[in-house]
């Protein structure tokens, strides 16, 4: 909204005012001059004013007054009138602008007006009425309103593009070249088909205006064309160059389904038959001098708009009009428009979108400003500043987020600019053309372009950075009979239950999920059992390994203290070399599994053994139940005393029993898993190894027990 002060309006001249200058008296009582010295006549209250002179008569009177003549009136002239005309100096002052008419009954006010020299202030401007969009609440009912996303679905890699077709399909594309088709149903979506579309990164995707065709281009120098309704690949074009942008540039009824692609490193645009071969129908080699950033079709006026990195915006037509400048726009020279706005600001459009009626063109610039143009005239209509400095100032004026969260989001925004991911953010119109939606650091903004107001923000509480948006509005179509007017007017409860399910589908920065905002809030977002994040992909081997390693530090440690009835034994553990063995020992220790176990076997000059809950040397199991495999490492040997190792009954039969040596025992290498060393309390180990034992069972006569084991 323009907040600059409006210029003051000039007073509207009355029909009775003289062309030579404003009248000294009120226009409702014209000043008439009689013979000099005539007495002043005052009408009694309630008397109607004398009839006004017609315009021609007043003009003639003005001319006569300038010549020094007297105009004969129906009433005698007042003394003030005579004195006014008798003075040339006052006559000169009377020709100055007048701020307002005087009171003919008050001569002192007339004198004050006659003494006014210089320009007078104009009338105060009336307060401008606030713009109101009629039926705004009805339009908002058909837009998502939930503050948090309801569902999210997965790809194997980061999702970069999303599109919604008029045929109720949602198409997502990920960084690894995969494309997925989803079908919008009455509530939510369902998976349809999965394509490995490209061998590399997908650069751009496009959906035709009627929603029948879909294409994608990637860095493998290929274009893939899909039939949306039948969700099938119907064509493949080898381009021979690295494509940048793509767009269907045909309208329903055209003979050729033409598609435009640009070369990523130059300003060339190639036009192909989407159902034909890889021979271009036309090439624009001089339309743009810099690499293109956007190609978009306005299907209402059948005009294509393209933009490049130098900030230049061009209008052109498709195959039916021989790729010439359109004749249905209201400008011929670009200097008559505001299309040089980006070049002046040293920015370029990273996203272009058209309203459903084709009359508005919304752009999202690399300088983070939203500009809305009138399409036919090219004139700038609105500008919204979404720069980081604006958000910082807004946070200082009125806190939008907690300071720590605001700092985290600002860091994400700077990373966006660093990796040039801002180009993936887009702007879209709703079906009415009165609202635009785009992602910001605060969430998805819904802006009313008629009233210049931010109506709502979706996802402000979420910790994701929304990027590319697609909007579904209305009711998902089913293969059934059309609903007639009579059916609509009936009180059929089945038909009344069919409600619109407006949904915003968005991607997020560095996320392999796409998110759906609807009118329904999620049931429970804090519970671990929350099912709003659907795991529709099996985790890869790398993800499994990462999850295992991430889980490791929570369950394992690198040191422990064994508290025995004869003293404490401090041990160092090796979780990196023997992760499973150390995890088994640490979890058992934390769970109190070893508490109260006796040292059931002691061989003097060899080792002490424990960890059997039965105390016989025949029991014990691992934390996973049963036994687990050996873990041998080349750096962990029985080459020194006070080595902590696993007891077993053969290969891969480890359970819960372990032993500590008191001498080097190299013959045990690669037979028992070494997972620790004693660092303190060696004398305790020696004292235990020297107690008297039964020579047949090696069990001490007096029980030596483990009180507990502390894992640090």
Observed structural traits:
alpha+beta; Cyclophilin; 8-stranded antiparallel beta sheet; 4-stranded antiparallel beta sheet; 35 strands; elongated; EC 5.2.1.8; repeat; isomerase; Cyclophilin-type_PPIase_dom
Write a structural description.
- This protein has 712 residues and is α+β, with helices and mostly antiparallel strands.
- Among the domains are: 1-126, no CATH class; 551-711, Cyclophilin-like (Cyclophilin), CATH 2.40.100.
- It contains 13 helices and 35 strands.
- The protein has an 8-stranded antiparallel beta sheet. Strands 1-27-26-25 form a 4-stranded antiparallel beta sheet, with no helix packed on it.
- The two termini are 63 Å apart.
- Mean pLDDT is 83; it is low at 1-48 and 51-107.
- Residues 13-30 have a biased composition (Polar residues).
The profile of the biggest β sheet is:
8 strands, antiparallel
Write down the overall mean pLDDT.
83
Per the CATH scheme, the topology name of the domain at 551-711 is Cyclophilin
Number of strands: 35
Q: What's the CATH class label of the domain at 551-711?
A: Mainly Beta
Global morphology: elongated
- Low-pLDDT parts are 1-48, 51-107
Q: Compute the CA-based radius of gyration.
A: 43 Å
Number of discrete helical segments: 13
Strand content: 25-35%
The quaternary structure here is single chain
* CATH architecture descriptor text of the domain at 551-711: Beta Barrel
Q: Biggest sheet: strands side by side, in what order? A: 30-31-33-32-34-29-28-35
The chain-level structural class is alpha+beta
Helix-residue proportion: 10-25%
Q: What is the CA-CA span between the terminal residues? A: 63 Å
Q: Tell me the name of the CATH homologous superfamily of the domain at 551-711.
A: Cyclophilin-like
């Amino acid at each position: 909204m323009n907040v600059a002060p409006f210029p003051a309006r000039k007073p509207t001249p009355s029909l009775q005012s003289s062309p030579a200058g404003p009248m000294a008296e009120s226009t409702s009582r014209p000043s008439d001059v009689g013979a000099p010295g005539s007495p002043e006549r005052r009408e009694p209250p309630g008397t109607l004013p004398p009839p006004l002179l017609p315009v021609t008569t007043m003009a003639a009177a003005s001319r006569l007054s300038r010549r020094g003549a007297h105009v004969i009136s129906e009433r005698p002239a007042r003394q003030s009138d005579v004195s006014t005309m008798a003075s040339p100096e006052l006559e000169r002052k009377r020709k100055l602008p007048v701020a307002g008419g005087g009171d003919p009954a008050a001569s002192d006010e007339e004198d004050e007006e006659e003494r006014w020299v210089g320009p007078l202030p104009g009338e105060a401007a009336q307060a401008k009425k606030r713009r109101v969009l009629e039926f705004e609440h009805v339009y908002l009912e058909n837009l998502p309103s939930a503050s948090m996303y309801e569902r999210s679905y997965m790809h194997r890699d980061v999702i970069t593009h999303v599109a919604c077709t008029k045929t109720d399909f949602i198409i997502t594309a990920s960084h690894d070249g995969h494309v997925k088709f989803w079908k919008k149903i009455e509530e939510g979506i369902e998976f349809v088909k999965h394509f490995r579309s490209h061998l590399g990164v997908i650069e751009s995707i496009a959906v035709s205006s009627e929603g029948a065709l879909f294409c994608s281009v990637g860095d493998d120098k290929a274009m893939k064309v899909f039939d949306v309704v039948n969700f099938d690949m119907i064509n493949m074009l080898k381009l021979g160059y690295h494509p940048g942008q793509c767009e269907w540039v045909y309208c329903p009824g055209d003979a050729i389904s033409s598609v435009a692609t640009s070369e990523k490193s130059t300003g060339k645009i190639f036009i192909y038959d989407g159902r034909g071969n890889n021979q271009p129908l036309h090439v624009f080699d001089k339309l743009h001098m810099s690499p293109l950033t956007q190609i978009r079709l306005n299907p209402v006026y059948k005009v294509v708009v393209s933009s490049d990195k130098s900030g230049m915006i061009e209008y052109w037509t498709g195959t039916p009009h021989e790729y010439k400048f359109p004749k249905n726009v209201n400008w011929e020279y670009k200097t008559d428009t505001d299309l040089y706005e980006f070049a002046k600001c040293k920015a370029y459009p990273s996203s272009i979108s058209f309203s459903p009626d084709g009359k508005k063109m919304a752009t999202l610039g690399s300088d983070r400003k939203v500009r809305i143009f009138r399409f036919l005239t090219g004139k700038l209509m609105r500008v919204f500043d979404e720069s980081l400095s604006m958000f910082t100032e807004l946070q200082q004026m009125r806190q939008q987020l907690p300071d720590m969260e605001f700092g985290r989001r600002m860091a994400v925004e700077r990373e966006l600019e660093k990796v040039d991911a801002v180009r993936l953010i887009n702007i879209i119109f709703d079906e009415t053309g009165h609202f635009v939606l785009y992602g910001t650091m605060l969430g998805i903004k819904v802006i009313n372009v008629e009233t210049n107001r931010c109506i709502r923000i979706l996802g402000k509480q979420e910790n994701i950075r929304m990027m590319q948006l697609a909007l579904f509005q209305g009711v998902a179509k089913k293969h059934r009979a059309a609903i007639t007017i009579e059916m609509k007017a009936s009180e059929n409860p089945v038909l009344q239950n069919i409600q619109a399910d407006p949904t915003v589908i968005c991607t997020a920065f560095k996320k392999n999920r796409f998110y759906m905002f609807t009118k329904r809030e999620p049931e429970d977002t804090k519970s671990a059992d929350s099912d709003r994040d659907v795991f529709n992909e099996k985790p890869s081997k790398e993800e499994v390994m990462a999850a295992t390693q991430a889980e490791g530090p929570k369950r394992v440690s690198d040191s422990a203290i064994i508290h025995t009835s004869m003293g404490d034994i401090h041990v160092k553990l090796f979780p990196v070399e023997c992760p499973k063995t150390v995890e088994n020992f640490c979890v058992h220790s934390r769970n109190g599994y070893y508490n109260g176990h006796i040292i059931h076997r002691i061989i003097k000059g060899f080792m002490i053994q424990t960890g059997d809950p039965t105390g016989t040397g025949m029991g014990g199991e691992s934390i996973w139940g049963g036994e687990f495999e050996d873990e041998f490492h080349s750096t962990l040997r029985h080459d020194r005393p006070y080595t902590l190792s696993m007891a077993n009954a053969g290969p891969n039969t480890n359970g819960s029993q372990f032993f500590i040596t008191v001498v080097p025992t190299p013959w045990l290498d690669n037979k028992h898993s070494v997972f620790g060393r004693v660092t303190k309390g060696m004398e305790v180990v020696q004292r235990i190894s020297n107690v008297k034992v039964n020579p047949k069972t090696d069990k001490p006569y007096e029980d030596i027990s483990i009180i507990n084991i502390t894992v640090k």
